[in-house]
Write a structure and sequence with these properties.
InterPro entries: Znf_MqsA-type. This is YgiT-type zinc finger domain-containing protein. By secondary structure, the protein is of the alpha+beta class. The chain has one domain (10-70): Roll (Ubiquitin-like (UB roll)), CATH 3.10.20. It contains 1 helix and 4 strands; from the N terminus they run E-E-E-H-E. Strands 1, 2, 3 and 4 form a 4-stranded mixed β-sheet that branches. Strand 1 (10-20) and strand 2 form a beta hairpin. 9% of the residues are buried.
Length: 77
């Protein structure tokens, strides 16, 4: 598969996903991703995106300013 931005080659890697919810910053480590070897653009499969959304929604009302979690160790790519 090729990058949507520059048409470079995508490589399977684990990356870190971060989102600022205003009241909390969520950092998810070891996320299965496709990373462009040319421009560095990161993309996620539909399953991974759904799991990230579930994680973020779970932590949305967290009583902490920063939440750092590991992506669940599943066979999802």
């Amino acid at each position: 598969m090729n990058c949507l931005m520059c048409k470079g080659e995508l490589e399977n890697q684990k990356t870190t996903y971060m989102v600022d919810l205003g009241n909390c910053i969520v950092i998810v480590k070891n996320v299965p991703s496709q990373v462009c070897s040319q421009c560095g653009e990161i993309s996620y499969s539909n399953d991974v995106a759904k799991e990230l959304e579930k994680i973020v929604n779970t932590l949305r009302s967290a009583l902490t300013e920063i939440a750092v979690v590991n992506y669940p160790d599943k066979n999802v790519a």
